[in-house]
Amino acid sequence: MALIFAMALLGQLASPSSWPTSWPQRAPFLGGGDQTVHAWQRYHVRYYSMTLLFIAFEMEMMFMYPWAVVFVAEGMKAMVEMGMFLAILSVGIVYGWREGIFRWQ
Questions:
Q1: Structural contact between residues 102 and 52, judged by C-beta atoms closer than 8 angstroms
Q2: Does residue 102 surpass a pLDDT of 80?
Q3: Which positions ≥6 away from 20 have C-beta within 8 Å?
Q4: Domain boundaries, the chain
Q5: Per-residue pLDDT tens for 65-85?
Q6: Under a CB-based contact definition with an 8 Å cutoff, are residues 49 and 100 in contact?
Q7: Which backbone phi and psi does 9 adopt, to 5 degrees?
Q8: Residue 88 and residue 82: Cα distance in Å, rounded?
Q9: d(Cα 50, Cα 97) in Å, to the nearest integer?
Q10: Which GO MF term does the entry hold, naming one (predicted)?
Q11: 7: exposed, middle or buried (Cβ count in 10 Å: 0-12, 13-18, 19+)
């Protein structure tokens, strides 16, 4: 009996007569603003460099969590490996800084 009631309720909710008919009700939520540009618009190249740095540091955090778990068991070897990993990331950050990707002009 409950299965029949649930199916009838789902059928009523899924029927086209219950769908919104006006455009403001059917439009996707965009944070309260109207869509003024197409989704495939071009972005400035500075966003790509910042995105690459963001991804690099996200990957750093992804590797540091398991490292923190095995650090006690591995000892100094794990510390040296993480130091080398952070040094490589630091070189990337310094290079980006020298190239001026943090300046928003």
A1: no
A2: no
A3: 26
A4: 43-105
A5: 888 888 888 888 888 988 998
A6: no
A7: -65, -45
A8: 10
A9: 11
A10: quinone binding
A11: exposed
Secondary structure element (H or E) that encloses residue 79, with its range = helix 76-99
Residue type, 75: G
Residue 53 tokens read as 């740095």
**Residue 42: which residues within 8 A CB-CB, separation 6 or more?**
none
* pLDDT tens sequence across 38-55: 667 777 777 787 788 888
**pLDDT reported for residue 63:** 81
DSSP 8-class letter at 52: H
Which residue in the block uniquely carries the two structure tokens 């439009």?
A: 27
With residues binned 3-state (H G I as helix, E B as strand, rest as coil), the percentages for the chain, rounded to 5, are 70, 0, 30
Please state the pTM of the whole predicted model: 0.49
Place of tokens 């996707």: 28
